[in-house]
């Protein structure tokens, strides 16, 4: 594969014209679907995902050997990658280990963030649909899940916001001048080492860290710093989406404004 | 089919059944028997596909269909068979089936589950029943388009999703565009890069409009003598018969000077009818008050007896098949001029294709 | 389906409280590994690793097959792992548990996708014949830290393995038996090792290495690094769990690098020992008329 990103060093612009620390266009909606308890739609560049949350509801029969939990809600995550989501149609099997890994990651990240102990003997089902993929898939899925869970009104400690960070040179080149990059698209992910990082709220605390490419350990720090910074931007954005939707719902009279709401509606 | 659990008590089922067998029936959501749930639809939502559509019913169920087309080399039929036109036809019939791949994804269900496979086969069967479908995918003798239809149910499966998926597939196919062919004859195909110049798989206007349109599959249930279209979950739970009826519109080339196009109505062809096992068969029967003497030692035998004969107002799962008269009525209601299929197609025509 | 017994409440409190006081149940320091034992089998390509009570056996085998059509110049390399009911009744045959899926993904990413084995060297005739190297991983007992143990076993077994020598003359491919020609080692590029850190306490402030099964059930979060001695990370996996401060990850990466260097030295040493042992009774030695006198 030709290294298209090698032009980066000339103008310090990436293949899609961004600078190193720029996120792609983010767009999100919540409460996209009436039938679900919580739902969201999220775009990170051309990566488009939808999330539907059902629950907390009565625990369904045991599936796939999950251990039943008596004192907390079980979280089931189901990721469906649509056949038309990538450039070439690819049908992923139900037993694709990569998808299963993503599902476990999301479920585990949520298990320690949600107050599942409030819903014993119940289950929260999260189904995610990937409509289009162009890099940062896990990050987009995590962000969409956060939004949908907020819509469903399930108590959580804080937002989980995620994004990817990479480094401009491949592992073989030992140059120290490599720039870290934020929010990689598919083309960059193919060529450059990158990691997905998810943080909790405004803190520097990392909930998920997944790196699948070969990279010098010395680059890790730079990538982490950029990634955590990106997560904060994403969190700002998610928060704004939630606030806007909340203000809209109050305006439309869907919910009553109460004193407990600590948000400014007249903006 | 019986994938969803029915969480209605026998008393609720009896109530639903009674109100739905009245004349005219009273539906839980107040619709007329032939009325569909209101829906919102949009097409061309996914730029990465050849055609896509999203349909959203008022009860919150939602589906997305994406169509992708790839060029594939046609595996040539053995030369010997070409001399015999009949066997050649059979061969082309077979290849036509492979040219279309349809996958249904329902969240929380495995894609090899019987009910999912049944759903996708019903949708595929209706499409392939159209003899001209393969012609649309034909490029030249050596190449053809291979269509991949991915049908995604986004919402949890609240009601039987067949009508929703079918309508979404219909719209997605109408919106499907293929690049314009630049090459001629049997040479390797070359296409116009300009997406604006691409042609619709189902031409919309002009001389090429004749031929069939993509099919729609309607779900019809019969309760008593009443025929009810687009049943909601509650209605399906008490249905005595459930049928999936696939129809397609066939358009003929209009003669010049034929001014009154709209008033002529459309020509519909019935493609397939499939019976669907209604979930009502698995419902537990109600216990009549007379035999519900919990303390009595004879209660079991009495229950047995109550199961044999129907008591007025006590729910009992329907048994047996469909009467011819009911079947007739259903087909009539679907196909007649100004009937349900007409109405639905009219509604779908109003969706702007992008 | 049998379920894994969870640690009881008193066990739970005992272990966590002890950790807060800086003590582990088996008396180790937080950053101390269990005694490690690596033994090679009589055959080439068999390695057994013991981390305390965790015991894993890896066996490598090779056969000639047809390469995948989309990769005509590459050989086939697969790692199969099975967690059988031998470990605990909660593991079932033919139904991969989540743990097994994650383990096989981790090994795949660490060893296969990082290019530790040069798959191009396995090609015999492009598009027609290639070597298929298969690693079978058997977990014999599971007492925590399975990932690190399994990774070490697989790497050691692959390093130890010798495939039959072959030659191509024109169109004919000859595979020699071990009596005809000495088998050749695989073309190995780098040795990545997994190092798993487990986090305990409210804030994840207690970092433990080489945890036992009991400790693993009580940890709040875990992070696995795969790294070789040159400081190249092959993957990092922190699949959810409690959120941790970012600087911890840098700190752990340094720890992982040191451990990886230790493990590299250990494998090298053991391989050298094994080679020496074999050399004595080698085929050439058998043929010589000299004796030790």
From TrEMBL, chain A:
Highest taxon of the source?
A: Eukaryota
Q: Where found in the cell?
A: Cytoplasm; Nucleus, Nucleolus
- Annotated Exoribonuclease phosphorolytic domain residues: 22-155, 159-227
A Pfam match is RNase_PH_C
**Which GO terms fall under biological process for this protein?**
nuclear mRNA surveillance; poly(A)-dependent snoRNA 3'-end processing; rRNA catabolic process; U4 snRNA 3'-end processing
Extract the GO molecular function terms from the UniProt entry. Answer: RNA binding
Tagged with keyword Repressor: no
Q: Which UniProt keywords apply?
A: Cytoplasm, Exosome
* GO CC term (a single one): nucleolus
InterPro entries in the record: ExoRNase_PH_dom1, ExoRNase_PH_dom2, ExoRNase_PH_dom2_sf, PNPase/RNase_PH_dom_sf, Ribosomal_Su5_D2-typ_SF, RNase_PH
Return the similarity comment.
Answer: Belongs to the RNase PH family.
Q: How does it assemble?
A: Component of the RNA exosome complex. Specifically part of the catalytically inactive RNA exosome core complex (Exo-9) which may associate with the catalytic subunits RRP6 and DIS3 in cytoplasmic- and nuclear-specific RNA exosome complex forms. Exo-9 is formed by a hexameric base ring of RNase PH domain-containing subunits and a cap ring consisting of CSL4, RRP4 and RRP40.
Its protein name is: Ribosomal RNA-processing protein 41
UniProtKB/TrEMBL annotation, chain B:
Gene3D superfamilies, per database record: GHMP Kinase, N-terminal domain
This protein's record includes keyword Membrane:
no
Q: Does the keyword Cytoplasm apply?
A: yes
Keywords attached to this Swiss-Prot or TrEMBL record, sorted alphabetically, are: Cytoplasm, Exosome
Task: Provide the primary localization.
Answer: cytoplasm
* Exoribonuclease phosphorolytic domain boundaries: 35-179
Localization, per the record, is: Cytoplasm; Nucleus, Nucleolus
Q: Kindly list the biological process annotations in GO that this record carries.
A: exonucleolytic trimming to generate mature 3'-end of 5.8S rRNA from tricistronic rRNA transcript (SSU-rRNA, 5.8S rRNA, LSU-rRNA); nuclear mRNA surveillance; nuclear polyadenylation-dependent rRNA catabolic process; rRNA catabolic process; TRAMP-dependent tRNA surveillance pathway; U1 snRNA 3'-end processing; U4 snRNA 3'-end processing; U5 snRNA 3'-end processing
Q: Where is this region: Disordered?
A: 75-95, 277-299
Instruction: Please name one Pfam family that this protein belongs to.
Output: RNase_PH
Quote the biased-composition stretches of kind Polar residues, using this chain's numbering. 289-298
Q: Name one GO cellular component term.
A: nucleolus
Q: Which InterPro entries does the entry link to?
A: ExoRNase_PH_dom1, Exosome_comp_Rrp42_subfam, PNPase/RNase_PH_dom_sf, Ribosomal_Su5_D2-typ_SF
GO terms (molecular function) for this protein are: mRNA 3'-UTR AU-rich region binding
What family does this chain come from, according to its entry?
Belongs to the RNase PH family.
Task: Report the protein name in the record.
Answer: Ribosomal RNA-processing protein 42
Q: Which organism is it from?
A: Cylindrodendrum hubeiense
Q: Organism classification, top ranks?
A: Eukaryota, Fungi, Dikarya, Ascomycota, Pezizomycotina
Automatic annotation (TrEMBL), chain C:
Its localization reads: Cytoplasm; Nucleus, Nucleolus
Q: Which InterPro entries match?
A: ExoRNase_PH_dom1 (IPR001247), ExoRNase_PH_dom2 (IPR015847), ExoRNase_PH_dom2_sf (IPR036345), Exosome_comp_Rrp42_subfam (IPR050590), PNPase/RNase_PH_dom_sf (IPR027408), Ribosomal_Su5_D2-typ_SF (IPR020568), Rrp45 (IPR033100)
- List the molecular function annotations (GO) for this entry: mRNA 3'-UTR AU-rich region binding
Does the keyword section mention Transferase?
no
Q: Which UniProt keyword terms apply here?
A: Cytoplasm, Exosome, Nucleus, RNA-binding, rRNA processing
- Where is this chain primarily localised? cytoplasm
Q: Which GO terms describe its biological process?
A: exonucleolytic trimming to generate mature 3'-end of 5.8S rRNA from tricistronic rRNA transcript (SSU-rRNA, 5.8S rRNA, LSU-rRNA); nuclear mRNA surveillance; nuclear polyadenylation-dependent rRNA catabolic process; rRNA catabolic process; TRAMP-dependent tRNA surveillance pathway; U1 snRNA 3'-end processing; U4 snRNA 3'-end processing; U5 snRNA 3'-end processing
Protein name stated in the entry: Exosome complex component RRP45
Q: Which residues form a coiled coil?
A: none
